[in-house]
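INFO batch 0412 | record 1 of 1 | parsing
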Amino acid sequence: MLLMLLVACGGGAASAPSTPAPAPPVAAPAPVAVGPDGPETIAVPPLASISTDPADIAAGEAVFTAKGCGACHKFGEKLVGPDLAGVTARRSPTWIERMVSEPEIMTKQDPVAKDLFRTLMVQMTKQGVPPEDLPKLIAFLKSKENAVAAAPAATAPPAAPAK
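INFO prediction complete | emitting C-alpha cells
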C-alpha cells in the first residue's frame, strides 16, 4: 500500500522545487512629445487662421449641433463638459482640433486635458468630426468667444391686490 501511495504521489526521489526564471526587464515606453498644442502624434489639418466668414461659422454650428456637442457643452456656463465661451482664447486652434479629434489620447498624454479630466471626472467622447470640418467648428467656437450665459427671464412682481 505504501508503494501505491508513493507511485500515486509521484514518489521516488524528492526533487527540489522549481522556481520560475526571472522575467527580463521591460523597457519603459518612450515619452510622447507633448507641447502646448497637445501630443504631436495626433495629426490634424494645419490652420493658418480662424475664419470669420459667416458661411464657415454657420457650417461649424451645424457640426456642433449634428455631433451633439451641446449635450455636454454650453457657452457662458459649465454643463457636463467645460464652458466653451472663450475657449479659443484659452487654447490654441491646434489643441482644440486634437482634443476634438482624439479626446482619449489627449486625456492620457496632454497635461491640460489630464487636468480637465481630473476636475470634471468625465471623459469626452470621440464624436468622429471629419478633419475637413475642424476649421469650421473652430470658427464657430471663436464666434462665441464672448458669449455669456443667458440670463434667467425676468419675472414681474406680483400685481398689488385691487382695493
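INFO post-check: The chain has seven helices and two strands.
INFO record closed
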